[in-house]
Amino acid sequence: MPEPTQQLSPPATALPEAQTRRLRWAQGILLLFHVTGFLGLAFSQDPSFFLQFVPLNLLLTLGLLLAFQPRRTPAFWSFCLMVMVVGFLVEVVGIRTGLLFGQYTYGPTLGPKWLEVPVLIGVNWLILTYCTGMLARYLPIPGFLRAVVAALLMVGLDICIEPVAIRYDFWHWQYDVIPLLNFKGWFAVSLILQVYFNRVEFDKRNPLASFVYLVQLLFFFGLGMLL
User: What are the TM regions of this chain, as residue ranges (predicted)?
Assistant: First the structure.
């Protein structure tokens, strides 16, 4: 008896191979931007030329992360919007009161400002919250502990960012001293955002997220070592 006719379907490996190629291209673009920026800031006699691309780098990084987010549902977009708005607002409160992070002011490096805060600072909060939240998902521990780990990853990256940010006019601290309150405030806000990340229902898989965190960590840590 002849076997029933089967419909042809694409090979099972076609999609993963295509996604792998896209992922390699995205990683290459991010690596190119960060290596160029690292070399320019570390060894150029005119770092201002490279600093003007910081806002573009932030937007490029976010765009690539969004491209690798599966099923961008309304819940996902609401998460993105909420984190960006909260991130911006806590910076406004921080600038105006000094109660959350200490006394600091923003320089021009992060782009145009509104209420004395760079408009793109919310994008930075989203990138960090999203990437560290994704990294913590690898740990087989309860949700709240994952939120704590992700918040600690955010604080760890901020520790590496601070000396570079001060040197290249991202922001400045009163008396040029980074207060301990800054890291406490970062942890508190990050923890709230990570708990929110865990509660929102959307597909929490992104093959680019860990690379973004790693390349930023190496970028700021390396520059900090050269200062």
Answer: 25-43, 49-68, 75-95, 115-136, 143-165, 177-196, 208-226
Per-residue pLDDT of the chain (227 residues; tens, 9 = 90+): 444 433 333 333 345 788 899 999 999 999 999 999 999 999 998 899 999 999 999 999 999 999 999 999 999 999 999 999 999 999 999 999 999 999 999 999 999 999 999 999 999 999 999 999 999 999 999 999 999 999 999 999 999 999 999 999 999 999 889 999 999 999 999 999 999 999 999 999 999 999 999 999 999 999 999 98
Q: Which residue has the tokens 């929102």?
A: 200
Does residue 152 fall inside a structural domain? yes
Q: 153 CB contacts (<8 Å, ≥6 apart)?
A: 132, 135, 136, 213
- Number of domains the chain is built from: 1
Name the maximum alpha-carbon separation found in the chain: 88
Asked if residue 55 is part of any domain, the answer here is: yes
Residue 61 maps to a domain: yes
Q: Can you tell me the distance from the alpha carbon of 191 to that of 139, in angstroms, rounded to the nearest whole number?
A: 16
Q: What is the 3-state secondary structure (H, E, C) of 169-190?
A: CCEEEHHHCCCHHHHHHHHHHH
Beta-carbon contacts of 130 under 8 Å, excluding residues fewer than 6 positions away, are: 65, 80, 83, 197, 206, 209
3-class state of residue 114 by DSSP: strand
Report the candidate in 43, 89, 1, 90 with the shortest Cα–Cα distance to residue 223.
43
Cβ atoms < 10 Å from Cβ of 167: 14
Structural domain range at position 183: 23-226
Q: Is residue 8 part of a domain?
A: no
Element (H, E) at 38: helix 14-43
